[in-house]
Amino acid sequence: MKRKYLVEFIIFFSYFLFAVAWTAGTAFLGPIMQAMGIKSLAYASFISTAVTFAKIIGTAVAAWVLAKFGTKKAFAISSFLVCLSIITPFAPNYPVLLTARFLMGLGGALMVVYFAPIVLRCFDAKERPIINGLNAVSFNLGTALVMFFVGDFVALFGGWKQTLVAFSVASMLFLVLWLLFGKYAEGDTAQKANVVQKKEEESYTFIDGLKDPFNWKFALSYSGLLAFYIVLFTFYPKAGISQAKVVILMGIVGALAGIAYSKKYTQRIPVIRVSGLILILSIIGLNFSQGNNTIATISAAVCGFVMFLPMTALTTLAQEMPNVTPRKISVTFSIFYSISYIVATIVPTIFATLVDMNNGSFTVAFIFITIVSSTFFIGSFFLPEPSKLKEEKAA
């Protein structure tokens, strides 16, 4: 096996296991709080808020950590933080639990940013769509595994504590694998892909990234989709819409279809634009199905599919921009996720406020989240098409 495929195997399953441990921790939050004798729902909401802040902070500092420690050590740090999930089942009190979940979320936030520079360094342009697509589906696969088989895991390991420990041990195993095999010849593949490695470009900072209009267009386009995704799993069950599993499953199918599309076609914008438009229509169907379970299920299936269909193209688009380097792409995705998570933190609060202001009615809030989700479609008219940029440069 070539080293680069082993590297991909390790980073894929490292993030997959983060999703597994994270989702399982959320699923077992009831018994965890019960074991501590805590009944306040506000405490549970603080855990979610702490996680959101961890994602914002983690993605914002990810590029700095990468520049400071290098790729191997930076990813090892993120993996180590994810392994701190081992504390969750043994947390003696609420502050320790909150800290453990925060650090774990921080590790996951760092890890997701490092996908892009690692893929850029290890794989050539023809391979990247496949690898990007696989990485895009890893979190959904981990989430789906827990959602559908959490009861089986509890039965297998003998309890929720043992289950969380088993997931954490698996993460530790992949941390060891990364420390042993995460070394690769940085720059070799980049040179083959004609990636510019000039010194001044490798000093590209977070501030430089904030000055780049592309990074803002890139992040804001995705932010509405992410905000909807979080609102969907947070509030939709309370509105009587409980098709979350359908969205997860069809998201996996959509991500695989996205790999096939991006492998065959070099243009990235068309699939982003069409998916963005269909996403809006499917959200309208989901929001206003008025209790019709068939319409809600079909809308959820379409919604999940088109949410993840363009993810490969979106990630690959950023990697195909002119004069891209591993340093620049790490800054781009650091900004991409930090801005997206900030928006995705504010939007659910507004959504909940609108429900409260309308005496528990979700109608206005549904209209609001539909409008927010349209950023993906609108953003497609402002994002550049890398293939055209290359043609213009060649001309």
Report on the architecture of this protein:
- With 395 residues, this protein is mostly helical.
- It folds into two domains: 1-195, Growth Hormone, Chain: A (Up-down Bundle); 207-386, Growth Hormone, Chain: A, CATH 1.20.1250.20.
- It has 18 helices and no strands.
- The protein has helices at 3-27, 29-36, 41-83, 94-122, 128-157, 160-181, 188-192, 199-202, 206-211, 213-235, 244-264, 269-287, 293-308, 311-319, 326-357, 363-373, 375-379, 386-394.
- Helix 4 (94-122) runs antiparallel to helix 5.
- The longest helix is centred in the first third of the chain and has 43 residues, at 41-83.
- Mean pLDDT is 88; it is low at 185-198.
Using only C-alpha atoms, the radius of gyration works out to 21 Å
Please work out how many helical segments DSSP would assign. 18
Q: Report the CATH C-level class of the largest domain.
A: Mainly Alpha
Main sheet attributes: strand count, strand direction, barrel closure: none
- Which stretches of 5+ consecutive residues score pLDDT under 50? 185-198
Number of domains: 2
**Strand-and-helix sequence, N→C?**
HHHHHHHHHHHHHHHHHH
The overall pLDDT, averaged over residues, is 88
Percent in strands: under 5%
* Number of strand elements: 0
CATH 2nd-level architecture of the largest domain: Up-down Bundle
Task: Summarize this structure briefly.
The protein is mostly helical and 395 residues long. It contains 18 helices and no strands. The two termini are 40 Å apart.
